[in-house]
């Protein structure tokens, strides 16, 4: 079954469908929706996807925002609008600000760097979450280096411009492997003294926090942007979709998956030039989608969130910790940050960022910089 029958990927730009073809596609989509929804309901009792969860709809991951819409809608004259190859040509040089490829062990990381190792205020390492990339920190990094900080922001393995190895061939996208790979990267970058750590987002963002819990001596201070922190933190529909057998394989190959997720958690629409960068890895190959799929399948949400909630509580964590929280996050509510702060009020400071959503470093970088400067 062609992927285009399940989701209108940019590949559709390469042909001009007749009315009868469109009718057949719509009829097939309806049958597929019914069959997947039926299969999903049957799996409810197994615990994979709760059938009584009103927040989850496997076909609800949509947006009316212009940047996503322009990427997926059929133009009136597809031949004049360009195909996937032309889209890649238009965007392939975008999104690599301050970045270069660095090999650590057997893996190649794309790492952004601003400032210098002689910066007087110390080193800051920025870690992104899924399904985004370090591009989200570009403005924050630039401004922080102007204030005397040395900044690094890597793309996690499987994301952005870093390596995306096939599962089973040297990297299986588990928490342990992510931690080991990150340790090797820090060694390669020669980051030896305790540094400032900034973490944001789901999946690999959570692994950034569990790495800190296992390596407290390497962390001077930690700043946490919108990230699941409590056992009650909800899991967005995207990651539930990825864990549905077969349906996850289709979902992970959606070329506008990342920008949809960003816009879904934010009060703002991404400008096309930014959406292009988040879209680019998923347009270039199937590797990023399958890396995301494996990461979502391997994580144990309950265990990971339990580690974080307990590990950062009073008596367990004594490092200065900042919560810089976008209060209009549509995935993670302000109450999660407040609950986390109450678990360790001596060491956790909460700063609310008005007007920012799930990705505050993208929504309102100036306010994030102000919070980080005063804290670090």
Automatic annotation (TrEMBL):
Pfam families: Abhydrolase_1. Residues 38-57 are annotated as: Disordered. GO terms for molecular function: catalytic activity. It comes from the Eukaryota. GO terms for cellular component: chloroplast. Residues 123-232 form the AB hydrolase-1 domain. This is AB hydrolase-1 domain-containing protein.
């Amino acid at each position: 079954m062609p992927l285009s029958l399940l989701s209108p990927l940019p590949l559709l730009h390469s042909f001009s469908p007749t009315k009868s073809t469109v009718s057949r596609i719509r009829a097939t989509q309806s049958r597929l929706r019914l069959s997947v929804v039926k299969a999903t309901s049957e799996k409810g009792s197994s615990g994979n996807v709760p059938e009584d969860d009103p927040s989850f709809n496997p076909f609800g991951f949509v947006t009316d925002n212009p940047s996503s819409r322009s990427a997926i809608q059929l133009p009136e004259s597809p031949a004049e609008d360009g195909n996937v190859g032309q889209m890649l040509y238009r965007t392939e040089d975008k999104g690599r600000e301050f970045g270069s490829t660095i090999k650590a062990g057997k893996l190649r990381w794309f790492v952004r760097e601003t400032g210098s190792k002689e910066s007087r205020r110390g080193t800051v390492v920025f870690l992104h979450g899924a399904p985004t990339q370090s591009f989200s920190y570009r403005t924050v990094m630039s401004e922080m280096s102007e204030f005397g900080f040395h900044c690094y922001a890597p793309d996690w393995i499987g994301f952005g411009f870093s390596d995306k190895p096939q599962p089973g061939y040297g990297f299986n996208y588990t928490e342990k492997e992510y931690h080991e790979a990150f340790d090797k990267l820090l060694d390669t970058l020669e980051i030896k003294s305790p540094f400032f750590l900034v973490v944001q987002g789901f999946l690999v963002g959570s692994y950034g926090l569990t790495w800190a819990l296992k390596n407290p001596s390497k962390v001077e201070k930690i700043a946490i942007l919108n990230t699941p922190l409590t056992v009650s933190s909800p899991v967005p529909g995207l990651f539930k979709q990825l864990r549905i057998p077969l349906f996850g394989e289709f979902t992970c190959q959606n070329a506008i998956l990342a920008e949809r997720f960003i816009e879904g958690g934010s009060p703002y629409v991404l400008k096309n030039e930014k959406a292009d960068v988040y879209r680019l890895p998923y347009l270039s190959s199937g590797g990023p989608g399958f890396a995301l799929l494996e990461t979502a399948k391997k994580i144990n949400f309950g265990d990971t969130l339990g580690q974080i909630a307990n590990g950062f509580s009073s008596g367990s964590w004594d490092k200065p910790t900042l919560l810089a929280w976008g209060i209009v996050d549509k995935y993670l509510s302000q109450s999660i940050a407040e609950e986390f702060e109450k678990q360790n009020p001596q060491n956790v400071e909460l700063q609310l960022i008005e007007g920012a959503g799930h990705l505050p470093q993208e929504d309102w970088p100036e306010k994030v910089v102000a919070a980080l400067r005063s804290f670090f």
